[in-house]
Amino acid sequence: MTEIIDGNEVAQGIRDGLVAGIDDLTAAGTTPCLATVLMNNDPASQTYVSMKHKDCEEVGIATRDIELDPEAPAAELFDTVDELNADPEVHGILVQMPLPDHVDEREVLRRIDPAKDVDGFHPENVGRLVAGNARFKPCTPHGVQKLLAAADVETEGADAVVVGRSNIVGKPMANLLIQKADGGNATTTVCHSRTDDLEAKLRAADIVIAAAGVPEMITGDMLSADTVVIDVGINRVETDEGSELVGDVDFESAKPKAKAITPVPGGVGPMTRAMLLWNTVKAASAESGVDVRLP
């Protein structure tokens, strides 16, 4: 019988496990704090930021909510990041994407103090991840690792296929899977829009991680029996009844073939948010010198 991996349940376990560490930090005089910076009028971005603040409140992480005019010069955003870098009460900085066209996203990422880069996208943190000495694992790939562990999926020696090569998910996910660490030691193939015979690669996989951003591109007939399927995609599509969220995997056709599979929504998404909290607590622990146990 196919196991449906419940991301909401696993994420709640992560949040519950963080509370003791947050209490220890607060008792020692350090309240973990996440600062979010929003510089767009996108309703989805506004919702994401609001959800992140709600998550922080639930576990006892303080927040700073900074909103900038999307028409403001890039220097205003850079100055804001500099101020947050210098603020000892702020431990994590998240600049919500997308940014206005006149702001260089790469320059913003470079501007954030690597020790406060809880997204894990600063070039220094990317380099540390690739070298196998990560300060912060990017939230979505780290969340995928936690989901695999929760489902007792053995990655060591497994053939894993990552579909998608983004800097946010695909590339760091592949790096984590091949590393000599818990949740690693897999033989990993990265597929993308130029991959020849994607179906053959998928059928050879023990683990498929779909992160291409193409609605339901992977169907059940492309998979072998007993494959573990982790669907990172979140795509809004129009239907006769309105609109709905679907993943990069056609859930209904893949489910009978899969040993375990994540739904959309309710799979990877909650884990991304939970691991942002995880990274913020880790940052506060490192800055304060108070060692706390992370779940």
UniProtKB/TrEMBL annotation:
<dbReference type="Pfam" id="PF02882">
    <property type="entry name" value="THF_DHG_CYH_C"/>
</dbReference>
<feature type="domain" description="Tetrahydrofolate dehydrogenase/cyclohydrolase catalytic">
    <location>
        <begin position="5"/>
        <end position="119"/>
    </location>
</feature>
<keyword id="KW-0378">Hydrolase</keyword>
<dbReference type="GO" id="GO:0004477">
    <property type="term" value="F:methenyltetrahydrofolate cyclohydrolase activity"/>
</dbReference>
<dbReference type="GO" id="GO:0005829">
    <property type="term" value="C:cytosol"/>
</dbReference>
<dbReference type="InterPro" id="IPR020630">
    <property type="entry name" value="THF_DH/CycHdrlase_cat_dom"/>
</dbReference>
<dbReference type="Pfam" id="PF00763">
    <property type="entry name" value="THF_DHG_CYH"/>
</dbReference>
<feature type="binding site">
    <location>
        <begin position="164"/>
        <end position="166"/>
    </location>
    <ligand>
        <name>NADP(+)</name>
    </ligand>
</feature>
<dbReference type="InterPro" id="IPR046346">
    <property type="entry name" value="Aminoacid_DH-like_N_sf"/>
</dbReference>
<feature type="binding site">
    <location>
        <position position="234"/>
    </location>
    <ligand>
        <name>NADP(+)</name>
    </ligand>
</feature>
<comment type="subunit">
    <text>Homodimer.</text>
</comment>
<comment type="pathway">
    <text>One-carbon metabolism; tetrahydrofolate interconversion.</text>
</comment>
<keyword id="KW-0028">Amino-acid biosynthesis</keyword>
<dbReference type="GO" id="GO:0000105">
    <property type="term" value="P:L-histidine biosynthetic process"/>
</dbReference>
<comment type="function">
    <text>Catalyzes the oxidation of 5,10-methylenetetrahydrofolate to 5,10-methenyltetrahydrofolate and then the hydrolysis of 5,10-methenyltetrahydrofolate to 10-formyltetrahydrofolate.</text>
</comment>
<keyword id="KW-0486">Methionine biosynthesis</keyword>
<keyword id="KW-0658">Purine biosynthesis</keyword>
<dbReference type="InterPro" id="IPR000672">
    <property type="entry name" value="THF_DH/CycHdrlase"/>
</dbReference>
<keyword id="KW-0521">NADP</keyword>
<keyword id="KW-0554">One-carbon metabolism</keyword>
<comment type="similarity">
    <text>Belongs to the tetrahydrofolate dehydrogenase/cyclohydrolase family.</text>
</comment>
<dbReference type="InterPro" id="IPR020631">
    <property type="entry name" value="THF_DH/CycHdrlase_NAD-bd_dom"/>
</dbReference>
<dbReference type="GO" id="GO:0009086">
    <property type="term" value="P:methionine biosynthetic process"/>
</dbReference>
<keyword id="KW-0368">Histidine biosynthesis</keyword>
<protein>
    <recommendedName>
        <fullName>Bifunctional protein FolD</fullName>
        <ecNumber>1.5.1.5</ecNumber>
        <ecNumber>3.5.4.9</ecNumber>
    </recommendedName>
</protein>
<feature type="domain" description="Tetrahydrofolate dehydrogenase/cyclohydrolase NAD(P)-binding">
    <location>
        <begin position="138"/>
        <end position="286"/>
    </location>
</feature>
<keyword id="KW-0560">Oxidoreductase</keyword>
<dbReference type="InterPro" id="IPR036291">
    <property type="entry name" value="NAD(P)-bd_dom_sf"/>
</dbReference>
<dbReference type="GO" id="GO:0035999">
    <property type="term" value="P:tetrahydrofolate interconversion"/>
</dbReference>
<keyword id="KW-0511">Multifunctional enzyme</keyword>
<dbReference type="GO" id="GO:0006164">
    <property type="term" value="P:purine nucleotide biosynthetic process"/>
</dbReference>
<dbReference type="GO" id="GO:0004488">
    <property type="term" value="F:methylenetetrahydrofolate dehydrogenase (NADP+) activity"/>
</dbReference>
